[in-house]
Amino acid sequence: MTERGLVTTLSPTEIQGRIDRAREINAQAPAEAVVADVARLFELDPVPGVEDEFVFPALATTARDRIFGGQVIAQAMIAAARTVETGKTVHSLHAYFLRGGDETKPLHFRVHRDFDGRSFANRRVVVRQDGKVIFNLTASFQRPTPGLAHQVPMPDLLPPEACADFLETIAADPSVSEEAFDHIARRRAFELRNHRPLGATQHYQWLRVAAPVGDDPLIHRAFLAFASDMGLLSSAMLPHGLNWSTPGLFSTSLDHAMWFHDDIRVDDWFVYVMDSDWSGASRGLNRGSIYRRDGTLIASAVQEGLLRLAPQG
Fold it and tell me: For labelling alongside 185, which of 62, 210, 244, 274 has CA 20 to 30 A away?
């Protein structure tokens, strides 16, 4: 069925055809290679002769209009961690997106050692391209210390096996154009299964890295920071019946905060439970809680994003 030239529904046969095509596209790239590409994002080069300065080289080509926010969050966190003494691990970060980044230009990371104490350390990271600041991040590190402990229980959720596969989700979505579909169906570093009830304001997605990433806890946290920017901003769209493909909608992250409560292995299933408290003034506030499959709360995230909807027609 169509309305004003836009597809509004897909038949079961059409959906199955898109699923089959998506799986063919997805299978063209080995999972190990795609995960390795993301892991390489975390390999920052020290600038010779300049203390606490790192660079990530330009990519030859890109299919993105701007750098994915989760990438620069994770990279800046890695840069900060490179300057902190062994034994202290990142427990929180707060970041602002100032300008869109370009993957075909180098990223320069300048780390400022704002504080080093017995239990805590604090680092401020300024990221530049073409001499302009595009992003800044403050991260805090703590030496593990026993103390009082509690957490909010994990909600009653469907297991990943009972949730929709990402490829099945996009195949059934008539708002995803054929042109966009082939791009979105490419293999990603994370396996993704989501549950987004119609009309609900809370949604969740199960994720796990599609191939092993070793045993370094910092790398697992970097992958988690990368994933924390996947889908969170859409939480503020749900109450309005919008999504990222809505005609006339422009959305982008403004700031992002994250707290790490426990270690995680991102090559095991974990779930990102998201909702939105508020939207207004062309902004939306989004919250996320990340749990291991056993119900342990391992991280929390909050993000405010820009939401601009231009009138159509």
Answer: 274
